[in-house]
């Protein structure tokens, strides 16, 4: 008996993609919009990211491996074409006014560009230890603002 | 190494955003297995990241999901058109043989769903059929009432004609 699975697998994937879309689409568009200022291009990239997600899970014959926002962010960063991304990020972070310039720079380089601590340290001409500490402080400030 | 100091060092934040080195990542994953408080702190940071993303979220325009689904639909159509019949696939041992029994000459396809998927264009056809149905029903009722009225008029005239004949 020959069973044909491929198409039904893809249809199941489409259903999972819809669930991911319902949960994270706003966050993803907000994220991409910080990297690509042109809204139409950002939306087009968002569509292609969801399609890549469907293709990837279909190729692996598994459900989309996205269990959290962070996993989707990481996936998106791997697929966004580097030449379209802005080098300067000016995201309006939570507690923006309470963050120092360095905290904002370090967070943006790590969160939006996934740069290593070593690369950020070189770029900002600081020590790696200071960058790690600053990233931790940035998280603490943003969390503190939310809890207040 | 004190776990509390490790959690406070900032390595967890670097790992969550993807900035930790390979060695730091390896160490963190080992500690995560051994110390539930590390796993808990990582979960907290993941949630923090989600809340930050929520703060900066932008509602997508309506129709965005439909565009994504159309693109995935295109993938499904490509998959359908690319699918090779089993008898033509050299990787399978099954070969088409005209002398086989008829029941062996067909591919058995199991349909697990009781639902049917049809193209979206059909909704306009269904809507048109529905509207036309209502129009024809209205016309039928109208002409039925008209003909009944006419029939009554005829009966009335015939009755008057009979009375006139009798009077003559």
Shape of chain B: rod-shaped
> Residue ranges of chain B: pLDDT <50 for 5 or more in a row?
86-98
> What percent of residues of chain B adopt helix (DSSP H or I)?
55-70%
Task: Determine the most extensive contact between two protein chains.
Answer: A-B, 59 and 50 residues
Rg of chain A, nearest Å: 18 Å
Q: Strand-and-helix sequence of chain B, N→C?
A: HHHHHH
Give the end-to-end Cα distance of chain A, rounded to a whole number of Å.
Answer: 63 Å
Helix proportion of chain A: 55-70%
The number of helical runs of chain A is 6
Shape by Cα distribution of chain A: elongated
Beta content of chain A comes to under 5%
Mean pLDDT of chain A: 83
Total count of domains of chain A: 2
Structural class of chain B: mainly alpha
Mean pLDDT reading of chain B: 83
Order of helices and strands of chain A: HHHHHH
Q: Based on DSSP secondary structure assignment, what is the total number of beta strands of chain A?
A: 0
Major sheet of chain A, described briefly?
none
**Low-confidence segments of chain A:** none
Q: Strand portion of chain B, in percent?
A: under 5%
By secondary-structure content and strand pairing, the structural class of chain A works out as mainly alpha
Overview of this protein structure:
The complex is a heterodimer of chains A (148) and B (168). Chain A is 70% helix and 0% strand. Chain A is mostly helical and 148 residues long. Chain A is elongated, with a radius of gyration of 18 Å. Chain A has helices at 6-35, 39-59, 69-79, 101-113, 117-124, 128-147. By secondary structure, chain B is an all-alpha fold. Chain B folds into three domains: 3-55, no CATH class; 64-105, no CATH class; 120-168. In chain B, 66% of the residues lie in helices and 0% in strands. In chain B, helix 3 (22-34) packs across helix 4. The interface between A and B is large, with 59 and 50 residues.
